[in-house]
Amino acid sequence: MPTKFELVINLKTAKALPTMFAIKADVEAGGLLSYAPSLSDTFRRAAQYVDKVLKGANPGDLPIEQPNRFELVINLKTAKALGLTIPQSVLERADQVTE
Fold first, then answer.
1. How big is the CA angle at 58 (ends 65 and 43), to the nearest 5 degrees?
2. pTM for this one?
3. Strand pairing partners for 97?
4. How many domains are contained in the chain?
5. Pairing between β-strand 20-21 and β-strand 33-37 as defined by DSSP bridges
6. Is 33 helix (H, G, I), strand (E, B) or coil?
7. What are phi and psi of 35, to 5 degrees?
8. What was the pLDDT predicted at 12?
9. Average pLDDT rounded to a whole number, residues 5-9
10. Does the pLDDT value for residue 25 go beyond 90?
11. Is the dihedral of CA 84, 69, 30, 26 positive or negative?
């Protein structure tokens, strides 16, 4: 039985719908593109918070941070299957382009 994600990918392909996802793994699995905070950067920053707390910092005194590094991932194979052309200017700004 297909997963929910596989059902979404199959449906969007059958209906020729471009899709945007929150993580690059979804693009690598067939989604068109993702633009989201870098997970590796987010996990690294979370580890820094944990380190501060373990060293005695009061969690309530730590500032709330927002992501500052985002990743754009584009799947050219999916774009081609949907009949889309991704502008070169967008491809140049992408952090990862899969084919």
1. 40
2. 0.77
3. 74
4. 1
5. parallel
6. strand
7. -140, 110
8. 74
9. 74
10. no
11. negative
Tell me the average pLDDT across 39-56. Answer: 94
SS3 36: strand
Q: Tell me which residue range forms the domain holding 61.
A: 4-98
State the average pLDDT over residues 56-61.
Answer: 95
What is the Cα–Cα distance from 3 to 17, expressed in whole angstroms?
Answer: 19
Question: What would the two tokens of residue 11 be?
Answer: 């449906």
Is 90 exceeded by the pLDDT of residue 28? no
CB 20 within 8 A of CB 34: yes
CA distance linking residue 6 with residue 95, whole number of Å: 24
Per-residue pLDDT for 13 more than 90?
A: no
How far apart are alpha carbons 94 and 99 in whole angstroms?
A: 13
Closest CA to 12 of 26, 25, 30: 30
